[in-house]
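Students often ask why we bother encoding 3D structure as a string. The short answer is that it lets us treat folding as translation between two languages. Here is a chain of 242 residues written in the first language.
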Amino acid sequence: MATVAEHYERVLSPVYSWMAGGVDAALAAGKAEIEALQLGLPAGAVAVDLGAGFGMHAIPLARAGARVIAVDSSSQLLGELGRLAGDLPIEVVHDDLLSFRAHLKEKVAAIFCMGDTLTHLPEHTNVDFLVQEVAEALAPGGCFVLSFRDYSEPLLDASRFIPVRSDERRILMCFLEYEEDSVVVNDVLHERAGDAWETRVSSYRKLRLSPGRVTGSLESFGFDARQEPGPRGMVRIVARPR
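And here it is in the second language, the structure alphabet:
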């Protein structure tokens, strides 16, 4: 079974912006998410985007006046982010998200971990470590925003098979297999190659996180956390240090 990094490199990174509905639609959705949070970040504030991908949230943040540190383990996605960002104030960091503090020169106003990135951590203890690192990295009055899918209740039977996106040249679907602490995501990508179809299949594990588990971790490290419905069926948590 592939690691998260291997799975993205083989299957998801080359089609990720397509999977998200295309660059323009994804950036518009990211902008709407940021605006809906009404965080009131001052111009020039430093924000960190963990699992930044091709910039769905980093680019709207920078366009709104933030200085963004965009962290991701996929060089392909960060390359796409760099091309899309142009001269926006975005620092691209190719690293594991758990190491983000090594790239900070100061405490920051906001940290984002959006789009199910949190479930890519290998162990539940890594969630606690990340929360502790965020608590150390935030400036007074800062905020931590997360979104993720609640995998705590397993989907059953045919509901485990999920169509992700399709068009005349690509079809992406996945099916889920539930384990005690994780869910195995099996991605099946069909791509048109001339008159034939080529298929790539890869599997990786995500954590089965519940909102209560994440909120509990945040509160244990001194955050007040507000849970709310997020986009695309996710849970969103907005947390601020007490």
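Translate back mentally: The longest helix spans residues 23-37. Keep this in mind for the problem set.
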